[in-house]
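Hi F.,

I've been meaning to write this up properly since the lab meeting, where we talked about keeping a consistent format for the predictions we share between groups. The idea is simple: the sequence comes first, exactly as it goes in, then the structure tokens exactly as they come out, then a line or two of notes. No screenshots and no reformatting. I'm using this chain as the first example so we have something concrete to point to.
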Amino acid sequence: MKQISNIFTLLIVTLLFTGIPAFSGPSTYDQLLKIVNTDGDETSCAFSTDRTLFVFTRKAQNSGNYDLYITEFKNGEWSQPESILQLNTDSDEISPFITADGKNIVFSSNRPGSRKNSKASKPSFDIYVSEKEGDTWSVPWPIYGAINSTDDETNPSVTTDGNMIYFTRTKFKMVCKNI
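Output, unedited:
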């Protein structure tokens, strides 16, 4: 499973770098891959529009949940990824997206406070937003109304003008097994 995840991460990063002249040199590409991939499980990711921020999901080895990490491109190299403490909980934080203006991170989480189907054992994945405040991120808030429901909402993407959000909704399905 880890090998598939690393191949998937490599494929995503390769596709993202294709056609980006600022990152055509192999040293920048190699450096990002080396600092992002670990013995843990790295999955979904997003670049800021100016390609100076890279946010991704990591389940560290021996960890029980996925968290959001960030690295910044400064002075010709990527910083060491850091956990975004203001956004992470003991639940899963996945599917990050950075808005075009770089001022918001939109992501999914099944943290306490997320909506929950009455038949489910834990909350569903809901979409949350955090605003950049200087060098930190605000406490995230959920999007309610037509967005979050008792089903799982993941993979958010916001249009450049900020007027629309696209996401994936997976319907809750009770699974019963006969023993």
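Notes:
The first strand starts at residue 41 and ends at 47.
DSSP finds two helices and twelve strands in the chain.

If this format works for you, I'll send the rest the same way.

G.
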